[in-house]
């Protein structure tokens, strides 16, 4: 079986060229959206993908380029398609995504719509627990070093496909993924300038062993990406809308 990835966008938080870094992952017929930023609804439309074709959304953290499209998605699913979509949310973000991010726009006390569960079939994801989200499709989260005291998570799908979300450079995690978990693909955010702020820098990623670089796809990059195409070692710039396919063995938690 293969897992395919199609980036709805590959840009940084303020990109005007590449959309938000959000990904559509397909495995065994299951369509998982990794993050839903404010450009995601238009990006899905660009790809002629309807909201109801998404089987589940996973949220890495609460920055707008990762959740800003959830209000439209929720309204579309409720009022246009009359379906309750699945939302996979790290346990520590469950209350905050409603109280501090979605409630203002989605709450409607006059229609007794007062909670996240009124819009979504909510599945909390405990950190570090390999969770079967669909038959043979597992997801495991890792707390990332992004904004202090503001939880952000990376995901590992079926033990082999890693998606960083937003994180600073974390050599210990990357070594664990590559040498212990036998990761075969790493999609990683990349800040093209120094010094490191809240993302891994290209210079730090270039210090990785070449055999690791070969499986790294760079995303969440600046609009000046084209100035770096020959400066990324053995790594690859993930491109918006391009389809990537990775052979994966079936996994179950049992
Ligand atoms: N400590 C911080 C927090 C935020 N920023 C800026 O905000 C942007 C957040 O969006 P991301 O998707 O990139 O996480 C970030 O890009 C910074 O511009 C910061 O610099 N430092
Ligand atoms: Zn981001
Ligand atoms: Zn962020």
**Ligands:** the ligand Nc1ccn([C@@H]2O[C@H](COP(=O)(O)O)[C@@H](O)[C@H]2O)c(=O)n1, zinc ion
Q: What gap, in angstroms, lies between the N and C termini? A: 19 Å
CATH homologous superfamily caption: Ribonuclease Z/Hydroxyacylglutathione hydrolase-like
Main sheet attributes: strand count, strand direction, barrel closure? 7 strands, mixed
By DSSP (H or I, 4+ residues per run), the number of helices equals 7
Could you give the count of β-strands?
A: 14
- What is the CATH architecture descriptor? 4-Layer Sandwich
User: What overall geometry do the principal axes of the alpha carbons give?
Assistant: globular
Given the helix and strand composition, which structural class is it? Answer: alpha/beta
The side-by-side strand order for the widest beta sheet comes to 6-5-4-3-2-1-14
Average residue pLDDT: 97
The domain count comes to 1
Strand content: 25-35%
The percentage helix is 10-25%
**Oligomer status:** single chain
Cα gyration radius (Å)? 17 Å
Q: Would you state the CATH class? A: Alpha Beta
The sequence of SSEs as H and E is: EEEHEHHEHEEEEEHEHHEEE
What CATH calls the topology is Metallo-beta-lactamase, Chain A
Function: Counteracts the endogenous Pycsar antiviral defense system. Phosphodiesterase that enables metal-dependent hydrolysis of host cyclic nucleotide Pycsar defense signals such as cCMP and cUMP.
Domain Metallo-beta-lactamase: 19-220
GO molecular function: 3'-tRNA processing endoribonuclease activity; metal ion binding
Keywords: Endonuclease, Hydrolase, Nuclease, Zinc
């Amino acid at each position: 079986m293969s897992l395919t990835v199609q980036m709805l966008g590959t840009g940084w938080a303020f990109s005007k060229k590449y959309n938000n870094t959000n990904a559509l992952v397909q495995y065994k017929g299951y369509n998982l959206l990794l993050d839903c930023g404010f450009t995601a609804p238009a990006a899905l439309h660009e790809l002629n993908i309807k909201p109801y074709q998404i089987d589940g959304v996973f949220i890495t953290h609460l920055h707008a380029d990762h959740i800003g499209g959830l209000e439209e998605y929720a309204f579309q699913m409720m009022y246009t398609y009359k379906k309750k979509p699945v939302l996979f949310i790290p346990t520590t973000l469950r209350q905050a995504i409603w109280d501090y991010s979605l409630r203002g726009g989605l709450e409607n006390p006059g229609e007794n719509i007062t909670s996240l569960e009124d819009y979504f079939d909510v599945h909390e994801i405990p950190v570090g627990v390999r969770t079967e989200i669909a038959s043979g499709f597992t997801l495991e989260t890792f707390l990332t070093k992004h904004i202090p005291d503001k939880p952000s998570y990376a995901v590992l799908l079926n033990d082999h496909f890693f998606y960083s979300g937003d994180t600073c450079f974390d050599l210990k995690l990357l070594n664990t993924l590559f040498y212990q978990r036998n990761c075969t693909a790493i999609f990683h955010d990349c800040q093209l300038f120094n010094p490191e702020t809240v993302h891994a820098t290209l210079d730090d990623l270039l210090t990785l062993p070449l055999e690791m670089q070969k499986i790294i796809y760079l995303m969440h990059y600046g609009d000046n990406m084209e100035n770096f195409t020959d400066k990324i070692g053995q790594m690859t710039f993930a491109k918006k809308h391009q389809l990537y396919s990775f052979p994966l063995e079936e996994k179950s938690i049992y």
